[in-house]
Design goal:
Elements lengths: L1 H25 L7 H29 L2 H24 L5 H21 L1 H17 L3 H7 L7 H18 L1 E3 L2 E7 L2 E3 L1 H19 L3 H20 L3 H19 L2 H21 L1 H11 L10 H13 L22 H9 L1 H24 L3 H25 L17 H26 L2 H19 L14 H35 L14 E2 L3 E2 L5 E7 L5 E4 L7 H4 L8 H5 L1 H4 L6 H9 L4 E2 L2 E4 L3 H11 L4 E6 L6 E7 L7 H10 L10 H4 L9 H11 L8 E4 L2 E4 L2 E4 L7 E4 H7 L2 H10 L2 H10 L27 H6 L9 H12 L3 E3 L4 E5 L5 E4 L4 E4 L3 H16 L14 E7 L8 E8 L6 E7 L5 H4 L1 H15 L1
Helix pairs in contact: 1-2, 1-15, 2-3, 2-4, 3-5, 4-5, 4-15, 5-17, 6-17, 7-8, 7-9, 8-9, 8-10, 8-16, 8-17, 9-10, 10-11, 10-16, 10-19, 11-12, 13-14, 13-19, 14-15, 15-16, 15-17, 15-19, 16-17, 16-19, 24-35, 27-30, 28-33
Length: about 950
Amino acid sequence: MLNLITEFSKFLNILLILLYTFFAYASFLHKKGKAKKRCFFVMTGVMYAIHLDCFLVLWLKAGEEKYLLFYLIQVLVYALAGLAYRKIYPNLSELVFQNMRFLLMIGIVMITRLSFDMGVRQFAFMTAALSVCLIVPFLIEHIKELRRFGWGYGFLGVLVLTAVYFFGLDNLGAINSLKVGPIYVQPSEFVKLLYVFALGTLLTKKRDMRQIIAVSALAAAHVLLLVLERDLGGALIFAVTYIVMLYGATVNPAWLFVGFLGACAAAAAAYQLFPHVRVRFDAWQNPWSCIDDGGYQITQSLFAIGTGGWFGMGLGSGLPESVPVIETDFIFSGIAEEFGYIFAACLVFICLSCFIMFIQISNRLKDECYKIVTLGFAALYGFQLFLNIGGVTKFIPLTGVTMPLVSYGGSSLVSTIIMFGIIQGMYVLGQKRQSHSQAYSQESQRLTSERRTKRRSGERTARGRFPKPDYRRSINAIMYAFSVLLIATVCYSAYFIAFQSRDAINNTYNKRQDLLAGTITRGEIRSADGKVLARTVTGEDGTEEREYPYGSMFAHVVGRFSKTRTGVELSENFTLMTASLSEFDKIALQLNEEKLPGDSVITTLNAAVQEAAWEALGDRRGAVAAIDPSTGKILAMVSKPDYDPNTVEEDWDSLIADEKGESALMNRALNGLYPPGSTFKIADVLAYIRENPEEYEEYTYDCEGEGRFNQVTIHCAGSQSHGNLSLRDAFAKSCNTSFVNLGTSISVTSLLDVCTSLLYNRALPGLPSASQSSFALNEQSEPNAIPQTVIGLGKTQITPMHNALIAAAIANGGVLMEPYLVDSVVNADGRVIEKNHPSSYGALMTPAESDILTEYMKEAVQTGTAKALADYPVAVAGKTGSAEYETGKESHAWFICFAPADKPQIAISVIVESSGSGSKYAVPVAKKVLDAYFSQTE
């Protein structure tokens, strides 16, 4: 029942916040009157409804009465604050006040969910700040002398930051806090207020260049001190706030350009000077590559956002505490995880409505000083919000700033509430003056018109001062710019949820995957022909066990659930633990106290082909990989020795001990690295054709069974003398001496380029867990290394799956289709939730080169080393290989092929370890796989 309540709660909250957001913006359309009051009345009701719903869930989950008591105290304070503010300031901005209370509510809900004690402390700070702010608007309204102390505010701010530099405490790498008794204070949060007041008063007092230079020096002193304290996020906010205020006060776009250049230079300098900046920048570019180090924070944030998805996991049902400093820097991620991204995005739009209202207040104010001060606060608030949301969603690099009013932290909370109070005071003052100053307004319009005329004619006022500008243009430009930035973060995160979150969710570092086991029964894994390869069986006592009906046959490709997940069980872990049912079906099952059935994964595997490959290998070590060359669908993937995933718990100790050296847990098809033997001669032929496009058919060589090249003696198989051979014949008969002769005539660079195009030394597309094949030859290599390398020995290594992809590319006209193992995802009702479609990785060779290789491989089957398949009912193109790897041991047997040769449907790679020649041991395995495949198509 509790799960049902949580599920219902999250959807209710989404509907309510959508309603709140709608009326927040609808209020902009109404100047005054009943319609506007109706908007705020609905917003108030919705706000209290969300608050009640959240604390009801928290109380039910915790089972402690203190949550109810805490809720009632909060409601009392919020209600009293509403009555007091409206009584003292009847002309206050209702939207700003409502949004402030709403953001405070959501912040305390989320912080309380993380820690009850932290929630209580945050509420205490909030109550104190709301009480203090009752007099802030009064001060703004009645103390006109506030604007007289611009330099005083500035010097006081510099003095405070200097004290922090010398006496401050380290906080997550930044020296930005002081201890006052039992309380830790972050002075820069309060210096922000002095800073904006200082800039606002000074920039509107004079407008000559000397004043601008002096004020710029003051702003630079603040920024420099913050940089020295390693509070780079704060330094960036201070710098941008100054640029915005300077542009707003002068309406000169040149200052924006200069500020942008300065910001770029500062960013480059910070990257060079501060190691943690480099770490954050690198983590921003690719956090997955450094997930254990610099990328840990952002990846954990993306796990939270991605796992929460559009609708969230439900309050108290996620794992936000796994995100570092979740209560401060990453609280948005926690909200997105448990309330859902729709809720979190609405929260951003509510914050944006605050910013827009600040801009409107700035536009309405007649007092130039208060106008620019309000603009500064708007920029400070909007840019801090952008840095926080953009950082935790990977839209921009992390800066370590908090989300205003929502994040935990007394200094940030109190200073932001005071800032809101100051803006309210300026708004109230503007409202009063507006109602009593119609004449003043007309005169102001006349003066503004004169100033425009002067500015257009390039005139300046007396003593070289700049004329007073038309503020509306610059203020509105700032509103549009910041709005675009915030909306961009929302859209970027929505794109991540829609198109990239699955990869993040399925990452093994995501600790949230197991949270769903209590409410969802893991889905099935099936073959393309409907065979159940893995399923969950529930016993009479309710316990669940993972069952694998085919035992060890699909062990490596399907994987296991116990003792670390592997294979499809790992890559599709979150998919199998997702129930894509309608909300009504979910509610019905939860009412019956039944677990939700997880989605099932339909693989591309062909059960008959897999079984044939598995049986063909028998007790020998090796691997088989089969793929559809026209689509990239993986049809089979077998590795021997294998193990039974049904009994892996009991067999684990012996599997790990591996006394026989079998490496039964390793998937040889993906991770086994072997010398390619004569299958590498495909690369030799390609390199020779590319170097000799007109003369390659003229190549001949007289094989005597052995030859000496670069002080290395090379033998053909059994020292057989093949006689005079063309290139086609040498390939078909796999003549070693001929290919060493050919290989030593090719430049090493050409061979390296060919191997690179064939994906050596590169990650295989679509197969992130596959090992990387290697080709070590280069221009600095010893000449004696070339003879062994060109016949697939030496240091060259390849995986069986990689060899299958090369065969598939040849079969498909040179184009490699990206391999994939999951065809689709279906829910418990059989409805397709997700369908994968073939996609081209790109051309590994030209169609003409593909045609040549196809003819050569057909010749190898008809007259060469693979002639055991010459009379096969379907034309086959293939290449054998025998890879010697250790003196005194039999070579590894290789065979790669595709069929039908003219219209290929299947490409196969076979390796049989330490068995002998490919023609004797690998070709028969491939034949049985072909039999199984084509018996289904007859």
